[in-house]
Amino acid sequence: MSEQFDVVVIGAGPAGYHAAIRAAQLGMKVACIDAALGKDGKPALGGTCLRVGCVPSKALLDSSRQYYNLQHLFGDHGISVKDAKMDVATMIGRKDKIVKQFTGGIAMLFKANKITPYYGFGQLQPGNIVKVKQHDGSEVELKGTNVVIAAGSDSIELPFAKFDNEYIVDNVGALDFTSVPKRLAVIGAGVIGLELGSVWKRLGAEVTILEALPEFLGAADAEVARTAAKEFKKQGLDIKLGAKVSKAEIKKKEVHVTYADGEGEKTLAVDRLLVAVGRKAASKGLLAEGTGVKLSDRGQIEVDEHCHTGVDGVWAVGDCVRGPMLAHKGFEEGIAVAELIAGLPGHVNLDTVPWVIYTEPEIAWVGKTEQQLKAEGIPYKAGSFPFAAIARAVAMGEPAGFVKVLAHAETDRILGLHLVGVGVSELVHEGVIAMEFNGSADDLARICHAHPTLSEAVHDAAMAVSKRSIHKVN
């Protein structure tokens, strides 16, 4: 006999737990299934983002940044420190404590909202039944008037570089090194590769990033990517473009990586190899025969613009569906679906989802790049402003980078905001808000920004669109 729920959510990551909590807030009886276990072997809610992704990586980025600044920037402030050391075990312990705090926080929210958690693997059966194989080996069946699939994603494993969780690792392994590797290679110059490569570089590792594509950060604005690449080079990150890896062999406690570039085949010996070539929808074993839910050729669950699968009462959100694999995109989809189930309006605008890379300098953007606008034949005008002319950035010792505003040449509506520099993970939301309200560059230029702040770079870039920036020659 199946227990009946208004909503059964498969997955308690960003998309799933938001869907569960919002549905419960709206008066529905909700169950949420999650298979993940923490480092202590106990259930840990929050998905990849919270346990082994966004949150723990930011903890390590902050720790490593403090250590790097202590050695390289504090002297400019007149602060001298001798024989600074990094205790890696303490740094990892701090990260684990933060993760446990937040996974426990979600468990408390589930309890407060009367959500019933099930710990194990959920599989959708025909008729909106979800079979849960729990960690103790027992099975239960849940019947949902609605089922929300939020199964998330997994790291992509390369056939010639299988994870052994010691020498060849994914992002999970790279968050738990017990010591700083002398030499670290990273396959993939995307978000994960750049962030975790930066962590271990700051702590003293020699880091080589091997990127198969010929251009760096092709999804970002080209000018932003060039500026970021220049700063990373100054920091000692060795980024090799057009480097296609074909083999990774473990020999005598080393990983020998074979790759080919424009000069031919080469071999690189390192102590650890991080494979960060992207993620894939975690849809394996998720659907029983006869559910009617379809998968794309990439293994993603097919949905319409409202995250509905086409099967009555079955929805899917987050990394396992189309769109950017970003936690905050999953947040919004989970909430939107819960509200749609309740008969309320629910919508996610994928055109205004912000992207952030938390390196030094940070990289962030929303909307279209100049490359995209040119390719689509959209007339536009651009205004940019450097952080080197922003008093707050200079006072912080962080003058690298700039802000660029792209607006339609005829309507002045903002089409994109692209940033590289200090604190841009926060500043990008000026563009998100302006675009959601169909704002123009002139709107942004006429809004008073406090002085001295980093946000003035956005203000001046917006003014520069119409060649009226006060603080630079237009």
What does the model show?
The protein is α/β, with parallel strands linked by helices and 474 residues long. The protein folds into 3 domains: 3-154 and 280-351, FAD/NAD(P)-binding domain (3-Layer(bba) Sandwich), CATH 3.50.50; 168-277, FAD/NAD(P)-binding domain (3-Layer(bba) Sandwich); 361-465, 2-Layer Sandwich (Enolase-like, domain 1), CATH 3.30.390.30. It is 31% helix and 26% strand. It has 13 helices and 21 strands. The protein has helices at residues 14-25, 47-52, 54-72, 88-112, 171-174, 191-202, 222-235, 327-341, 370-375, 391-395, 424-436, 441-445, 456-465; strands spanning 3-10, 30-34, 116-125, 129-134, 139-149, 153-155, 168-169, 183-187, 206-211, 238-241, 244-251, 254-261, 264-270, 272-275, 279-281, 314-316, 355-357, 362-367, 380-386, 402-408, 414-421. Strands 1-2-3-4-5 form a 5-stranded mixed beta barrel. Helix 1 links the parallel strand 1 (3-10) and strand 2. The mean pLDDT is 97.
